[in-house]
Design a protein that fits this description.
The protein is mainly α. The protein folds into two domains: 8-45; 46-84. Helix content is 70%, strand content 0%. It has four helices and no strands. The chain is flat and about 90 Å long. The protein starts with 7 loop residues before the first helix and ends with a helix.
Amino acid sequence: MNFLAITIETWTLAGISVAVVFSILVVLVLVLNIFSFVATKAVIKKPSKKKDIKAEYNNAKTLANASLDDKAAVAVALYLYEQDQMEQESGILTITHNDHSWSSQLNTRL
């Protein structure tokens, strides 16, 4: 194949195709960077310290006003959760072979 025999239209079409692909890639990278910038700005919003102090005060005030039944329910839930977290498994698997007529027909080594 002689490369000189390829016409100028062929080279033009190839060049335009490569330019279109790279321009789409550049646009895609820019769009993804903009999305990541917007997403990180939305996540990193720092609440003011006055609001944090007021929220902690309200939470403490609510907890102080809770009934004994509510406090007992929370204590039991935390106790059961911690017990479930500390439960240890034996780590031993027991595999038994149940001889069925269909399995012995499929596997002749049995």
